[in-house]
Here is the input.
Amino acid sequence: MARHLANEGIQPDLVICSAAERAQATLQGLREALGPKVVIAVEDGLYHASTGAMLGRLQDVPDDVGSVMMIGHNPSMEDFAEALADGTMLELEQDMRTKFPTAALATLMAPIDTWADAEPEGFRLVSFVRPRDVEAH
Here is the structure.
């Protein structure tokens, strides 16, 4: 997945990562690909977080942050991505709902001016990549 991030030029401004050991291991594997300017926030609250709690955390992101990556745990991450998706990318969303494995990357975009405006079903799912998708290339 680090290779995918590097190849696609995916460099979030902020990474919010669970403090749990497994999430930290995922972050370490991605660290070089994330670039030197990324701000990393390690937080206890993502472990088994509800969709509402994760949305609340996203809504608290400062407005000068243009993009956010969240590294957490399933089923919380899968549920959160599904809750944000607006239903316009039916085939891609169905693919995400079918199998959301460890280290999968769901990329969502929203036409919002401030993170406080983030709402369920307010984001368009623009990409869903699983580790096996990257390994196949």
Q: What stands out?
A: The chain has six helices and five strands. Helices lie at 2-8, 21-34, 51-59, 76-84, 90-98, 131-135. Strands lie at 14-18, 39-43, 68-71, 105-109, 124-129. The chain has a mean pLDDT of 94.
